[in-house]
Amino acid sequence: MNIRKPADYSQMLSALDQIMAVDLPQMELYTEIGRLVCARPEKGAAVMAAEYLSTRYPDATGFSLRNLRRMRLFCQTYADAPEVLQQAMESGWTQNVAILEAELTVSEKAWYIQAVR
Fold first, then answer.
1. Three-state secondary structure call for residue 80
2. How far apart are CA 26 and CA 62, in angstroms?
3. Tell me: the pLDDT tens digits for 25-68?
């Protein structure tokens, strides 16, 4: 049974509201959300963010738990490769997910990102 440990997510939720208030392109929005979730040490941060976004913004799409985990993975994968992150942000989310979920090194991912562009 999964039992949530108490954690204060108020700062993360407030930051999510600030990000959602700005009209960002999809890739920038997903990257910023991924950074927020990455900044939290708890495993439940993606779960909390997905629940919050789905409840608070019911008309918005793309905020499933699976997608929030992908946003976190996107930021973690390219954390040490800002030039690859910048190139990835010029592609669409669907292409990035396909590249991200493939078992490739960051340099191999960079090659595929270039090929998509």
1. coil
2. 10
3. 999 999 999 999 999 988 889 999 999 999 999 999 999 999 99
DSSP class of residue 58?
T
- CA-based nearest residue to 25, from 75, 87, 90, 79: 90
Stated pTM of the model? 0.88
E-only strand ranges, 1-117 = none
Contact of 68 with 50, CB cutoff 8 Å: yes
- 41 φ, ψ to 5°? -80, -20
Considering Cα of 88, then 71, then 78, then 80, what sign does the dihedral take?
A: positive
